[in-house]
Amino acid sequence: MSKQTAEPISAAGAEEKSSTSVLDASEPDQKTLGRERNEAKERQKSRLAAMDRETLLNIYHQMLLIRRFEEKSAEVYVAGKIGGFCHLYIGQEAVAVGALSALRKDDYVITSYREHGHAIAKGMSPESVMAELYGKATGCSKGKGGSMHMFDKEVNFLGGHGIVGGQIPLATGTAFGSKYLGTDQVTLCFFGEAAVNQGAFHESLNMAQLWKLPVIYICENNRYGMGTSLERAMSLQNVAQKGDAYDMASEFVDGMDVLAVREATMRAVERGRKDYLPTLLEIRTYRFMGHSMSDPGNYRTRAEIEKYQERDPINLFVASLKEEKIVDDKALKRIDEEVKQQVENAVKFAEESPYPAPEELYTDIYANPIDPSKNKAR
Predict the structure, then answer these.
(1) Which domains are seen in the chain, by residue range?
(2) Could you tell me the end-to-end alpha-carbon distance of the chain, in angstroms, rounded to an integer?
(3) What pLDDT, on a 0 to 100 scale, did the predictor assign at position 50?
(4) In 4, 153, 213, 346, which residue has its Cα 20 to 30 A from 17's Cα atom?
(5) Does pTM surpass 0.85?
(6) Beta carbons within 10 angstroms of residue 183's beta carbon
């Protein structure tokens, strides 16, 4: 496939620029928003015919589950039941669900610290993820990783990583391992656009293309690295174009369209499986919440947030499904009730689970476990 360096296909990806990186308008242009939403919906509807109803409903279920899970996470965080950092994925659900729906269970996924959605989409149970948020022993990392460090070897989810860009070289190494062993497994590596400015990003892309590694680098471009806008931090703001420097296949994707994300990832997966070739995907999305639960988001106006909420990936997908008569209100209500129950079950499981035993402080640290009994004062 030829390299893609096209500009965003709608104004949802062409942000207004100002010296402060805050929209100057007090409210969005509703006529423009409506037109953009309808255009996006028509593009999405054109993809529905090639997919079966079960797959489409599963995609909707996954996105809604992640949305409700994150909303509940915010609720229990405010109630003081979750400690530490907590980075929510609300608004970006189409990226994780669309991309991971193109994978097999044995493919690898590695991501940053905003990883609750990826963990659930990869197949981890909401119970194990919520228990980890609570710091409980039944969590996926035994309650010792918290929101930012979730792992599950059973589904090859290689975790959230707290160092910006730190997971990118690790994904490159995982892909090297797949090629060395002669498997057709691919590795998906998720990161934010701020990680693109790290040297590890460029070193990894160079190595992956040079050595022909089956890795898919997915930049979830939500426009802000913490509170700093893309315009203030990056001289070349078209992330997909950066793949050209390494002769790597790259593509811009509308991250508010779950089926567009799925199709782009499927193309990249095929390239990785058949030819051991890497891909860079810039998936333009938007987080409706602040960077973390401690971020009031004062660097954005309400008008800007409303602009992107008009393209809410879940609402957009539901509208497409209903207009194509793939689902009706009764079926949607049933799915919503199932999802709410799943989330409530996850909270109940987390609250009833025990905390890790004190001796767990000494486990999972070194290859040769520490024996605390040998460290007692003599």
Answers:
(1) 29-375 (3.40.50.970)
(2) 68
(3) 84
(4) 4
(5) yes
(6) 13
Contacts for 337 with CB less than 8 Å, ≥ 6 apart = none
Q: Under 8 Å CB-to-CB from 285, ≥6 apart: which residues?
A: 91, 92, 94, 95, 220, 221, 222, 255, 256, 313
- Per-residue model confidence as pLDDT tens digits over 18-49: 222 333 334 456 677 778 788 888 888 888 88
* pLDDT on residue 376: 61
Q: What is the DSSP letter of 79?
A: T
In contact, 64 and 336? CB cutoff 8 Å: yes
Say which residues have a Cβ less than 8 Å from residue 84's Cβ, sequence separation at least 6.
146, 147, 148
Which two structure tokens, joined as six digits, stand for 299? 């660097």
pLDDT per residue as tens digits for the range 285-315: 999 888 888 888 888 888 888 888 888 999 9
pLDDT tens digits, 324-352 = 999 999 999 999 999 999 999 999 999 99
Q: Decide if 316 contacts 41 (C-beta within 8 A).
A: yes
What sections of 186-310 are H helices per DSSP?
199-211, 230-233, 258-275, 302-309
**Maximum pairwise Cα distance, the chain:** 78
The C-alpha torsion from 246 through 249 and 253 to 257, rounded to 10°, is: -140
Residue 246's nearest CA partner among 283, 274, 207 is 207
On whether the CB atoms of residues 72 and 347 are closer than 8 A, the answer is yes
CA 79 from chain center: how many Å? 25
φ, ψ of residue 235 to 5 degrees: the values are -70, -40
